[in-house]
């Protein structure tokens, strides 16, 4: 089993300066490789430049600029070039399928936040000993950095990534051969219905409140964004006050992200501990949060009919604030580690189907919270009904699989 561990770094002032320089130099390498590909295309080169061609130039680049490129790990620089190559592969794939291409763009220094070392021991070393209270990670060109290791690392460390989030620095370990930690069977199965009014509702009728972290921090975030908007958008050199305003906005977003992750971890852990099997809807969050298409007015050329864009924007904001995709990914990972089963079912008509007689009709759901079958009269909370139908469909899926 593969698992990732994320720990907070506690660098000294000089080490933090070196970490920033490492990100800056890797960003410069990324942008230089992108510029080379753009120039080759504009000059009509018959052979396209690929990762192998640019990786072969690394030795010359490091020798030409030993102060900026020569002191960092060769393997981490190769990973940065692979990152660019993956961006181009995704670009060509989207062009082939007729999607919006999204040509790879240059990275600003403030938006290049991760450097990956592809192998433990090659430019980096995870130093964690059972009897040493202080854990460190060694990075080429920086030295040994203290790590706030809050949990044991299991399995074999494969890759090590250094990540910047605002003013914080993290190390992310990707480990394989992680042993499973199965829990004792409880004999319980549950279906869950994710929503906006309630974060989720179980088939037993329990409601988990939606914390709405973004909504709670809306005033603070709006004030920080208004202050940032007072500065010119495009300047050759940002002032100290401009950088401080940008950090404030990033700090608020980072806090919301950490709160959302914490809530998702705790909720998923409770479900995994209490149930042997968990069923949920297979949601397409990207499709659910699409912006409504414009509706041209056939009677007035150039005019458009109302398409409920403002109302849909509010719903989209609530869906993204709930973080369904993050929660389901965490739930699946925890279930795999604990030896539990997670089943994704078709979400169509789960809130319009009567769990008592099976009648499907739009009229069954009279209001957002109320469900009443027009055939048999069964009445219950609409989210509870959805969770019951999810559980019923999961039972059928498990029977077919068996």
Describe this structure in words.
- The model has no long low-confidence stretch (mean pLDDT about 90).
- The radius of gyration is 26 Å and the shape is globular.
- The protein folds into two domains: about 150 residues, no CATH class; about 170 residues, Nucleotidyltransferase, domain 5 (2-Layer Sandwich).
- Strand 12 and strand 13 form a beta hairpin.
- The longest helix has about 35 residues.
- It is of the alpha+beta class.
- Helix 1 packs across helix 4, helix 6 packs antiparallel against helix 7 and helix 7 crosses helix 10.
- The protein is built from eleven helices and 16 strands.
- A seven-stranded antiparallel beta sheet has the order 2-6-7-1-5-4-3. It has a five-stranded mixed beta sheet with strand order 10-9-8-11-14.
Which keywords apply here?
2 domains, 11 helices, 42% helix, Nucleotidyltransferase, domain 5, 402 residues, seven-stranded antiparallel beta sheet
Give the number of helices: 11
Order of helices and strands: EHHHHEEEEEEEEEHHHEHEEHHEEEH
Tally of extended strands? 16
Give the C-level CATH assignment of the largest domain.
Alpha Beta
Q: Please state the average pLDDT score.
A: 90
Q: Tell me, what's the shape?
A: globular
Unreliable spans: none
Which range does the strand content fall in? Answer: 15-25%
| Secondary-structure class | alpha+beta
Q: Identify the CATH architecture of the largest domain.
A: 2-Layer Sandwich
CATH topology of the largest domain: Nucleotidyltransferase, domain 5
Strand order of the largest sheet: 2-6-7-1-5-4-3
The termini sit apart by: 24 Å
| Helical amount | 40-55%
Count of individual domains? 2
Largest sheet: 7 strands, antiparallel
- What's the Cα radius of gyration? 26 Å
């Amino acid at each position: 089993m593969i698992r990732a561990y994320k720990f907070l770094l506690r660098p000294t002032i000089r080490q933090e300066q070196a970490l920033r320089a490492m990100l800056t130099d890797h960003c410069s390498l990324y942008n230089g490789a992108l510029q080379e590909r753009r120039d080759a295309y504009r000059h009509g080169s018959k052979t396209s430049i690929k990762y192998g061609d640019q990786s072969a130039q690394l030795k010359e680049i490091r020798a030409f600029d030993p102060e900026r490129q020569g002191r960092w790990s060769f393997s981490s620089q190769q990973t940065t070039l692979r990152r660019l190559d993956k961006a181009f592969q995704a670009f060509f794939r989207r062009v082939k399928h007729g999607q919006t291409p999204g040509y790879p763009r240059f990275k600003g220094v403030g938006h290049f936040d991760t450097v990956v070392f592809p192998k433990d021991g090659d430019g980096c070393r995870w130093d964690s000993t059972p009897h040493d209270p202080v854990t460190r990670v060694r990075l080429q060109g920086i030295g040994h950095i203290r790590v706030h290791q809050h949990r044991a690392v299991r399995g074999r460390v494969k890759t090590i990534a250094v990540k910047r989030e605002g003013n914080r620095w993290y190390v992310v370990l990707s480990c394989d051969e992680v042993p499973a930690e199965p829990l004792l069977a409880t004999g319980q199965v549950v279906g869950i219905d994710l929503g906006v009014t309630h974060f989720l509702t179980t088939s037993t009728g329990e409601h988990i409140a939606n914390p709405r972290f973004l909504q709670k921090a809306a005033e603070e975030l709006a004030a920080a964004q208004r202050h940032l908007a007072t500065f010119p958008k495009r300047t050759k050199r940002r002032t100290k006050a401009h950088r401080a305003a940008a950090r404030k906005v990033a700090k608020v977003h980072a806090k919301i992200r950490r709160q959302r992750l914490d809530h998702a971890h705790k909720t998923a852990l409770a479900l995994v501990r209490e149930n042997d099997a968990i069923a949920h809807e297979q949601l397409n969050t990207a499709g659910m949060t699409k912006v409504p298409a414009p509706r041209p007015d056939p009677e007035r050329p150039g005019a458009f009919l109302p398409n409920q864009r403002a109302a849909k924007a509010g719903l989209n904001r609530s869906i993204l604030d709930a973080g369904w995709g993050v929660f389901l990914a965490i739930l699946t990972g925890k279930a795999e580690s604990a030896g539990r089963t997670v089943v994704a079912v078709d979400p169509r008509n789960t809130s319009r189907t009567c769990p008592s007689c099976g009648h499907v009709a739009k009229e069954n759901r009279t209001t957002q919270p109320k469900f009443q079958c027009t055939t048999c009269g069964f009445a219950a909370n609409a989210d509870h009904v959805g969770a019951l139908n999810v559980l019923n469909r999961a039972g059928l899926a498990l029977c077919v699989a068996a």
